[in-house]
Amino acid sequence: MNIIELTKRQDIILEIVKNEGPITGEQIAEKLNLTRATLRPDLAILTMAGYLDARPRVGYFYSGKSGPQLLGDLARKKLVKDFKALPVIIKESSSVYDAVCTLFLEDVGTLYVSNDQGHLAGVVSRKDLLRAMLGKQKIEDIPVNIIMSRMPNIVVCFLEDSIYEVAKKLINNQIDSIPVVREVKAGDRQAYEIIGRVTKTTVTKAFVEIAGDQPV
Ligand code: ADP
């Protein structure tokens, strides 16, 4: 189902409901000289896509939502838990050299850094690593925890967050990647266990899925 392009008949149904709703399926069918059965798939599509609302024993009425609003609704329904990728994690004692190798081996742009307890300590991006390589010091001798962005300044997200919220965080913080985390207790402090990764690619995938309505 494509939320932007409706068939001619769906457009006509939408107009009828807009002008005359609430109206039953039976009444719409009569107006169009069609059977209720013929109309059923169209009504199902219009309802699922959010253009129409249906109430038992009342009928169909127009939801009043525009295409962009519906797109927003769909984006808010796509959740991190359904799109997240596996995180690529290195220890904070790893060297910048190790980090660069991992970046290439795992084919990612950002690495998440864990502390001795296995909790999120920081993030290193491509540019963080390039910057470290410009210095005089040998990259085998620089631990990543010297150059990483660190907690508590790491932007994180949770399984139940929507892809829309993630997209906003990526844009507002000008970053490419956000670790998906679960809160855990570490003594009396709050810490994060790293359970996934969402990136600009994740958001693009969700967008393509919304537009084409099939998994990519
Ligand atoms: P790059 O710098 O390689 O283009 P980013 O735009 O993702 O990649 O990173 C920009 C800066 O933000 C880097 O210094 C990086 O460490 C930091 N950063 C990346 N992701 C996060 C995050 N989720 N939370 C906080 N800081 C981050």
From TrEMBL:
CDD domains: CBS_pair_CcpN (cd04617). It holds the Pfam family HTH_11. Gene3D superfamilies: CBS-domain, Winged helix-like DNA-binding domain superfamily/Winged helix DNA-binding domain. InterPro entries: CBS_dom (IPR000644), CBS_dom_sf (IPR046342), CBS_domain-containing (IPR051462), HTH_11 (IPR013196), UCP026546_HTH-CBS (IPR016842), WH-like_DNA-bd_sf (IPR036388), WH_DNA-bd_sf (IPR036390). The keyword Repeat applies. Residues 83-142, 148-216 form the CBS domain. It comes from the Bacteria. Keywords: CBS domain, Repeat. This is CBS domain-containing protein. It comes from Ammoniphilus resinae.
